[in-house]
Amino acid sequence: MSRINQHPIIDFNKGREVKFTYEGKEVIGCEGETIASALHSAGVRVLHETDTKHRTRGLFCAIGNCSSCLMKVNGVPNVRICVEPLREGMTVEKQSDKEKVELDSNIRTPIDSGEKMVQAEVVIIGGGPAGMCAALEASRYGAKVILVERNYDLGGQLTKQTHKFFGSEKQQAGTRGIDIGVEIQERIMSDPNVEIWFNSTAVGFYKDNTIMVERENAVYGLSGESIIIATGAFEKNLVFPNNDLPGIYGAGAVQTLMNIDGIKPGDDVIMIGAGNIGLIVSYQLIQAGVNVVGVVEAGPDVGGYKVHASKIMRAGVPIYTRHTIKGAHGSDKLEGVTIAEVDDKWQMIQGTEKNIKADVMCMAVGLSPIVELFFQAGCELKFIPALGGYVPVNDEHRNTTVDGLLVAGDSGGVEEASSAMLTGHLAGLTAARRLDYVEDYDDRHCDLMDQLNSLRSGPHGVKIVEGIQRLREGMVTAGGK
Ligand SMILES: Cc1cc2nc3c(=O)[nH]c(=O)nc-3n(C[C@H](O)[C@H](O)[C@H](O)COP(=O)(O)OP(=O)(O)OC[C@H]3O[C@@H](n4cnc5c(N)ncnc54)[C@H](O)[C@@H]3O)c2cc1C
Ligand code: FES
């Protein structure tokens, strides 16, 4: 069992114990935690074996973004067990690569049939901090909002951030991310202007700004005067031998297991990346009683805030700067890693290899915006490395190049949670203005932009600001009002 029984910050409100079966054997988990967490706590790390090369697979993102955890649940294949809550009596089985899904060949979209078309004033895709703040802002001016979230709860990545936030009083500096998340969730759940569609996934962008949403085994066509996309970001991996071994997790997976479901991701964790996420998650691991065997960073210095680096160094964790990962080892899951020094051109230096025992490698090597819906909508996108990859061109009102389509949060360029909330507010404000509901637009916009600019004014904001300038060179957005 790898459950965290005591934590200095988090009180885990675990559900009652329930029985379910995994590959025909009875297993016990806690109701409401994800199936992946229950299996992990029962020692199951290998979730799948590929049909042809017999490579084993485990979790990678644990936030519903990749397909590494697909299993058959109650006979239904392709269930993302990292976001599916555990219930009494479930049957969970491994599936093959060629698992068949029974498709109804007569299936028609709502656009074909005219059925299940739903109209809102503002449609928001993604219930992370950006989407939630966009909803609250639009609602504050009286707009009727439908907020679509593919998971069973709101909060996105904010719900795992146990560290205290920086910024000013307006960004609740000094308050922990999880507490900010709870407070926003409570406000939004009691907001009469906001209807929330949980367990609902936006799967396609169609003509006339209509979004197709898969919900409870049906497809809905959702359209609005404005559509705000706030789908967040996914984690990058690195290329090295055996980078697919179970036990190699994104930082989001480690945070989900540890900070949401109270499960230790492993015994000995090696962190790859000394940016803010790598440093923060390393400290969170130490708080959860996990041994962090080292932090590996290819750059000459840590990329994140020094205050985070000092905390983990004080705990005795070595930070290997100018090092990279040469390979991972293990028969069916991770058992150890080899790291090596790199030269100024980031080439590995022969003879500098070190072997380190680890059962978890936590990848914190950057995020890329989730932008498929923008591509489908025909938005102009640019590749801006400082913002994480392809990003929809957008202005400071959050308009994209498609009229009525706005962007908020990480999907418009990866920053951090406070900026995501502010860009959410900006998008919600613009959406309300498009409905002619806003009288104090200039004042409110100015206030939000001042807060955002102040967040971006430190040394860590320089790259972001340059990235945004490049994104907006020669920009012609739809603008709107
Ligand atoms: C793994 C990870 C760890 C992070 N750790 C930190 C940290 O420690 N500190 C920090 O400041 N920042 C961290 N960040 C950075 C992140 O910028 C912010 O914390 C913030 O959560 C971004 O807010 P967001 O609303 O844009 O995206 P998210 O918080 O990612 O929320 C996006 C939401 O959209 C939903 N969604 C996605 N696609 C669809 C769809 N098609 N249909 C319906 N819903 C959809 C998702 O389920 C999710 O709830 C982290 C990001 C990631 C990915
Ligand atoms: S979707 Fe479940 S691990 Fe990525």
Automatic annotation (TrEMBL):
Domain FAD/NAD(P)-binding: 121-423
GO MF terms held by the record: 2 iron, 2 sulfur cluster binding; oxidoreductase activity
Protein name per its UniProtKB record: Sarcosine oxidase subunit alpha
KW Cell cycle (keyword) present: no
Any matching Pfam family: Pyr_redox_2
UniProt lineage: Bacteria, Bacillati, Bacillota, Tissierellia, Dethiosulfatibacter
CDD domains for this protein: fer2
Superkingdom of origin organism: Bacteria
Classification via PROSITE patterns: 2FE2S_FER_1
Tagged with keyword Oxidoreductase: yes
Alphabetically ordered keywords of this record: Oxidoreductase
Species per Swiss-Prot/TrEMBL record: Dethiosulfatibacter aminovorans DSM 17477
InterPro entries hit by this protein: 2Fe-2S-bd_N, 2Fe-2S_ferredoxin-like_sf, 2Fe-2S_ferredoxin-type, 2Fe2S_fd_BS, FAD/NAD-bd_sf, FAD/NAD-binding_dom, Metab_Enz_Cyan_OpOx_G3PDH
